[in-house]
Amino acid sequence: MNYADAIKAANELTTVLPFLGASPSRKDYEEALSLVEYLIEHQPDSPLVDMLTAKIDKYENDSPEFAEFNARVATIPTGVALLRTLMDQYHLTQSDLENEIGKKSLVSRILNGQRTLTLEHMRALAKRFGLPVSAFVGS
């Protein structure tokens, strides 16, 4: 391995993709998100996907602009966060989950943190969405 070539390539890459550099800006972050979307659609095996998503993850975890959001997300139980994501992805309403959880009011209370998902809820949701029950169990 030629260290000089590796260093030169890295410097050239950060010139083209400033987000991979030492001090990315919000604009660099937004451009990186856009590039990742493009790569996932057109070249999902590109090593840039892994490099950018790792840097995006670090940026989102460390940036003060995401601190409040990250703190709020950390308080949401894993199962509820997954349920919210599934509802969004599948365009479901609270009423659509009656077979797995129960009445709309119970779903609402679970989503608002007033009640918790039971093991039976988790099993039914896992079956419906083809996921392991453990996906709904958080740490």
Would you kindly provide a written description of the structure presented here, covering whatever features stand out?
By secondary structure, the protein is an all-alpha fold. It contains 7 helices and no strands. The protein has helices at 3-16, 26-42, 47-62, 67-74, 78-89, 104-111, 119-129. The chain is elongated. 12% of the residues are buried. The model has no long low-confidence stretch (mean pLDDT 93).
Q: Features of this protein?
A:
single chain; 139 residues; mainly alpha
Draw up the topology in text:
Layout: H1 3-16, H2 26-42, H3 47-62, H4 67-74, H5 78-89, H6 104-111, H7 119-129
Helix pairs in contact: 2-3
Q: Which ranges are low-confidence, i.e. pLDDT below 50, for 5 or more consecutive residues? A: none
Helix/strand structural class: mainly alpha
In whole angstroms, the N-to-C terminal distance is 42 Å
Overall shape: it is: elongated
Helix % is 55-70%
**Number of helical regions:** 7
What does the largest sheet look like? none
Strand content: under 5%
The number of distinct β-strands equals 0
Whole-number mean pLDDT: 93
The sequence of SSEs as H and E is: HHHHHHH
Rg, alpha carbons: 20 Å
Outline of the structure:
The chain has seven helices and no strands.
